[in-house]
Amino acid sequence: MDWDKLRMFHAVAQSKSLTKAGETLNLSQSAVSRQISALEEGMGVALFHRHARGLMLTEQGEILFRTVAEMVTKLQQTEIALTEATARPKGPFKVTVPATFGTLWLSAQMKEYTDLYPEIDVTLICEDRELDLTTREADAAIRFRPAKHPDLVQVPIMRLRNSLYASNDYVREHGLPQKISELSKHKLLGFEAAAGNLPFPEVNWMFELAGAKELKPFFKVNSLIAMRSAVKQGMGIAALPDYLVHRTRHISRVLPEVQGPVTEAWYVYPVELRNSKRIAVFRNFIAGKIAESNF
């Protein structure tokens, strides 16, 4: 089996489209189609079902794809090992992080990181959806829940605390609650959990506080950034991660004796990248910046 044809087969199987595969490989659709047809003819089996919605693998195609995917992974691992043998870390590095944490804190650290490691081509993906590290949708991740896949390494990197916050304007207008039971008299902001992608599991912990009676949000939003903005505008009291309001003016702790849940954050990466310098230098850099921030 010719590797060029197998490489094209792998691209078509991933994209389910001759056109998209051609764009990835910088080839015309007709060139890709001819190679796939030649591969099918040479093997004497149909590898794809062709229909209006795109290309789907046949049973034989699935068998071949699993083998080719393993070959591609091994080649990627070999490339990484050769690259990491150089003195300075360099090459592409894609890291995925929860949307709010990445947007409001981590992105602010990236200039210093890229200045330190200009030969690393960084892509920062800020979204709450967990990308699949085992298929190399990203090289590493910071996650607020432990990984379950056995082929992933996970290292505790920080502990994020949560507290109750309100703007100074809100406190002047509505007063400051002195105990948990008084929260029911205030305007409370909640996270809309129905969307499915929670920034961290206990995001609505305020409404389950012991000693509080029937706490309900008067306003809900599915973004912690938007919730922080609502707090700054004086809309009410919200439970927020401390890093989100770190050094933010005109927002103060409410009921400072109330300790919210501590969210463990993990640095996660595939086991085959455990010796990668790009993995190591990013972990060390972020750990140092977290220690400096002291939130």
What is the CATH architecture descriptor of the largest domain? 3-Layer(aba) Sandwich
Helix content: 25-40%
Helix and strand sequence: HHHEEHEHHEEEEHEEHEEEH
Assembly state: single chain
Shape: elongated
Average pLDDT over all residues? 88
CATH domain fold name of the largest domain: D-Maltodextrin-Binding Protein, domain 2
**CATH superfamily membership of the largest domain, which one?**
Periplasmic binding protein-like II
Structural class: alpha/beta
Number of strands: 12
Total count of domains: 3
Identify low-pLDDT runs: none
Mind telling me the CATH class of the largest domain? Alpha Beta
Distance between the termini: 56 Å
- Tell me the radius of gyration: 25 Å
Give a structural overview.
- The chain has 295 residues and is an alpha/beta fold.
- It folds into 3 domains: 3-83, Arc Repressor Mutant, subunit A, CATH 1.10.10; 91-151 and 271-293, D-Maltodextrin-Binding Protein, domain 2; 162-261, 3-Layer(aba) Sandwich (D-Maltodextrin-Binding Protein, domain 2).
- 37% of the residues lie in helices and 22% in strands.
- The protein contains 9 helices and 12 strands.
- The chain has helices at 3-15, 18-25, 29-43, 59-84, 99-104, 110-116, 168-174, 224-232, 277-293; strands at residues 48-51, 54-57, 91-97, 120-126, 140-143, 152-160, 162-167, 188-191, 219-221, 237-241, 251-254, 263-270.
- Strands 4-3-5-12-6 form a 5-stranded mixed β-sheet. A 5-stranded mixed β-sheet has the order 9-8-10-7-11.
- β1 (48-51) and β2 form a beta hairpin.
- α2 packs across α3.
- The chain is elongated, with a radius of gyration of 25 Å.
- The chain starts with a helix and ends with a helix.
- The mean pLDDT is 88.
